[in-house]
Amino acid sequence: MRELVGFRRFELWFAGGATFIYVVRRLLEEANRIDGMIEVVEQNRVSSATIWRDLAGYNHILNNNFPLIAGALLFLIAWYVFHYLTLPNWNSKEDDEKIRLYAGLSVLLVVSSVAIYYVAKLQVHYRQNEVGTTIGLKVYSLYRKRNVLADAIGMGIFLVGYELLCQLGYYLHRKARQDFRFISYLVWVPLYSFLTVFVLGGNLPEKLWQSPVFEILLLLAIPIQVYILQAYIYTSLLPYIRSFRTTEFLGRLLAGLLIWFLLSAMLWGARTYFRFPNSGLNNTLSILTLFCAVIIALLRRTSVKEKVALQTQVSHTSAELAGLQSQINPHFLFNALNSLYATALKENSEKTADGIQKLGDMMRFMLQENNRDRISLEKEVEYLRNYIELQRMRLDESHGIEIRVTIQEPDRDISIAPMMLIPFVENAFKHGISLRKSSWIFVTLTLDHTTIYFKVHNSRHPGLVNDPEREHTGIGLENVSKRLELIYPRRHTLAIQASEQDYFVALTIRY
């Protein structure tokens, strides 16, 4: 975004300048219009007393200048909040509550800009008799609830449509090669040319749903509908498509259909100020938007699957290369361990022999199973047990150290990506065991017919000098978190709670 700082500064100056020019133009046009109407009425021999009596309830500052200035200013603030505070952090996982607050504030400001205009605005028009002769002036209010709602939807479409085009321009600017870095101007030049023409000649919101503005709104509204629907289908329906018979999926499907219906109703209702005449075009376009949204969501899912598969393949290839570089003839190591195991048995050192056997099983797992895309949960649990038992061999649990392990054995064939559980246990032994202070580690693994539940809760003793695990970094929790995002997108939850005294990890994986 750094290379776009200058352009975003230009956007701010353009928006402020355009709003100022638009407001001044409208104020001058309205003042000249009313003066011209008074001259026409006077030419028809209407007395000044009649004219001022007709305008007795009209205050030009309160009923024309104020609503126009206040409405334009509120809409400018809505654009600023949405463009500079909401969208840049939309995909960020941090401060979700603040982002939702900004988005809600943008909607409120758009509605308020239209509402304050219609509530305070009074329109001056000719008063005519039965035969069409002008006999004076009349003042009437433009305020209708359906007008406010319809025009607020229209102004919202303008705002979101502008943002979508801007985001397209940003994307082209970032992704285009150096030779084509001006390709984004294919979006920005027409966009700002249209805005300039509108500022110099447009008139909103009274003529918002009239031609030619209506056609522009329609062109903007359809892709906005498609964008919202495909986002919902992609994030809330497709990840659960395999369990389409469940109540959860049916609820999400009904919610999606409701969103589609409301979007269609708002667009076509706003178009007709919510009188809803029967129109085959409305129904056709509504079905077309749903069809396009489904197609785009499916294409996105396919593209993401291919991307994840490629990233996973690259990650595994890198891991395999690193493993090959770090291996010192595995056959030699296994032969040496077998020799040590046999020697320990001859010397009646059963505990040492058991430890050597577990270490050999762990090494075999690392060399043979760890490079696969999926392994059985049973093998992962076996590795986990071996690791914990080896750690127990070096610790004296009778001196203030408690290690409690509760593992539910899988009763079916369940596959899982390798090394998803052990890093959390490694971290617990690294930071949770002290040879001088009371320490504890609780490991729990349970599962049901769809989900694996894994929890690790341990005491915390950072910076221990005497702990052999202090120099052992393991795979790293950040690495595991990234792998979970790649391999189990929207199919896992990872919650970590840390304090100075303890550390708690709760991981769920839908397999």
TrEMBL record:
Stretches that traverse the bilayer: 66-87, 99-120, 185-204, 216-237, 249-268, 280-299
Stated name of the protein: Sensor protein lytS
Keywords in alphabetical order: Membrane, Transmembrane, Transmembrane helix
Cellular component terms (Gene Ontology): membrane
Residue ranges occupied by any Signal transduction histidine kinase internal region domain in the UniProt entry: 319-397
Source organism (scientific name): Larkinella humicola
Keyword Membrane listed: yes
Pfam family of the protein (one): His_kinase
